[in-house]
Amino acid sequence: MQASIELPNKAYLLPNAIPNWPPAWWFWLALFALFVTLALMVFLGIRHHQQRAYRREAIQQLQDWHELSDQELAEHCLLLIRRCLKTEGHDTLISLPTAKLLPFLDSQIRSRKYAFQHLSEELIELPYRPAGQLSLEKRQNLIATTKFWIRRHRA
């Protein structure tokens, strides 16, 4: 209970105190909108995480590249890229030859550092060579470019 305030003149009247609870109706509306927005963000975040699971699995498969030969590595990278395209629903792109697929992959990324055009000769010819040799730098560049494409593609 509030202590009454002594006024010098009784002509001044103070209004009754306004209670702090329950808040106005618009407070409940704003609180409801906040909870709906929060629930929607959580739902969309979970759905985004689930839809991108194939990317995490593909990158995880690239972790064991040390054991692969050069030919197997090139075939494995192309296979992972084609599997990602299949998951996104681009069946017509999977059947493209590698020489036509690589410019399309570069157009999706728009990165000069991670471009398949620098690796096109190795990716096209290496699986058909009897004993292809890639330098360690080329192998790492192939892995890095494939990982970057898997993470960033907009198929």
Describe the overall structure:
With about 160 residues, this protein is mostly helical. The chain is about 60% helix and about 0% strand. It contains seven helices and no strands. Helix 3 packs parallel to helix 7 (about 135-150). The longest helix is centred in the N-terminal third of the chain and has 27 residues, at about 25-50. The protein is rod-shaped. The mean pLDDT is about 85.
Describe the structure concisely for a colleague.
The chain has 155 residues and is an all-alpha fold. 61% of the residues lie in helices and 0% in strands. Helix 3 packs parallel to helix 7 (136-152).
Name some characteristics of this structure.
about 160 residues, mainly alpha, single chain
Task: Tell me the layout of helices and strands.
Blueprint lengths: L24 H27 L1 H9 L8 H19 L2 H4 L3 H12 L10 H6 L10 H17 L3
Helix pairs in contact: 3-7
User: How many β strands by DSSP?
Assistant: 0
Total count of helical runs of at least 4 residues: 7
User: How do the helices and strands follow one another from N- to C-terminus?
Assistant: HHHHHHH
* Category by helix and strand content: mainly alpha
State the helicity in percent bands. 55-70%
Radius of gyration: 31 Å
Report strand %. under 5%
Mean pLDDT: 84
Enumerate the spans where pLDDT stays under 50 for 5 or more consecutive residues: none
Main sheet specs: none
Q: How far apart lie the N and C ends? A: 67 Å
Globally, the shape reads: rod-shaped
